[in-house]
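Bit of a strange request maybe. I'm writing a small parser for structure token strings and I need a real example to test against, not something I typed by hand. Could someone generate the tokens for this chain?
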Amino acid sequence: MSPLALLATGIAMVIAGIIFLRLHAALALLLAAITVGVLTPREAIQSYALDKGESIESAEKLAHAPIGKRVAQGFGNACGKIGILIAMAAIIGKCLLDSGGADKIVRSALKLVGEKRAPIAFLGSGFTLGMPVFFDTVFYLMLPLAKGFTARTGKNYLLLVLAIVAGGSMAHSLVPPTPGPLQVASELNVDIGQLMIGGLVVGLFAALVGFAYASWANCKWPIPLRDTPDSTLADIQSQVGKKDSELPPLWLSMLPILLPIILIGGSTTMSLLIDGNSPAKNFFNTFGEKNLALIIAAIAALILLISQIGFNKEKIARTFQDALAGGGIVILITASGGAFGVILQQTGIGPWMKGQVDAIGMSTIPILLLAFGVTALIRFAQGSATVAMMTTAAILAGLAEPKILGCSPLYLALAIGCGSKPLAWMNDSGFWVVCKLSGLTEGETLRTFSVLLTVMGLAGIMGTCVLAKLVPLV
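Reply from user aminoacidic:
Good idea to test on real output. This should exercise your parser:
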């Protein structure tokens, strides 16, 4: 079978497994990896290994290895690259929630901007929390605050809901340490620090464009506060009833979020600005290594939690258990996606795609638009933004070279992240989380939530293309 036919088979199996068989995403990815691996000719696997710099003997050994071993190697490599990062991010997010630190960040933002600018505060808080905390969790956390605020003011409920979505979802797809950007960075060999900076720039721009649409939608279709399955209007006040004095200080609440950004971003900045050795560069090279930086941030999050609940071994253990249980599922999905990606690469899809690009004569912008479009189509077909990002990164990994792109592979990663936003509909779990918890109807969710994500994705790819031409970083 040709690389394109193998690719189509793999994607079809993932989509069918998730949509029709209702399989867990990890199982669907592993089954697709095994199927594609069995169908891949040994010659293609040998060529893949030789292109990676392996010896002829090693290439032949890989080509004759059992499919289970090849899938397990891909799974292990992906897990080794992102496993610690996702586990630590899960701990950080859970400690922020259980300590009240996340609540403190949101309330402080509201105080800073005032009641009239509350939607901007929700946008910024959603974006900030969306970096270490998964999108669904950010929405669970902030929605009661939006309901409580609306109950007090009687207006702008839809705008507050969409502001949370805009901020949290863009950070989720563009800014590490969330799993999608981590896996894409690993697949395309993009520096994590660069992706943090680039994701912040493009993500904030797209979120602001999305906020403009949300403001228009709020005026066009004003939606009142309603009873929802998780809470009645009478219960809303009690959900946000903690006094400010019961919450941790803002600086301590922000520390677990800011530390990895400062350490990892500092390492990248020092490498760009300073040649040779210096105490500052050596410090950031040591503590700015992504795994160690996230471990340090998790320790800061633990200190935050202890400052609020005391050294209660049972509560701390429960927090860690819950965090790692949720994070473990994400690691499983991401590592399975990594295994699927490696098996796809062994089909020769990378060189084939590169040959097509060379034959057509595609330049920087068309390649970025191709990455955006492929990701959007996969997202539309099977619902998961993370799966779409991982699959596209594996397909286009062969294009992640400055000589081919005409710019840094950072922009290819950003294009893939932006492509995971459009065309979200009823096969997306986030669609139903927003729909049911906020009290919107399916039709209201489609014309607000779904259109909002599409608008932000389009704005993001436009911003990415402009930056790629103006600041190629080659």
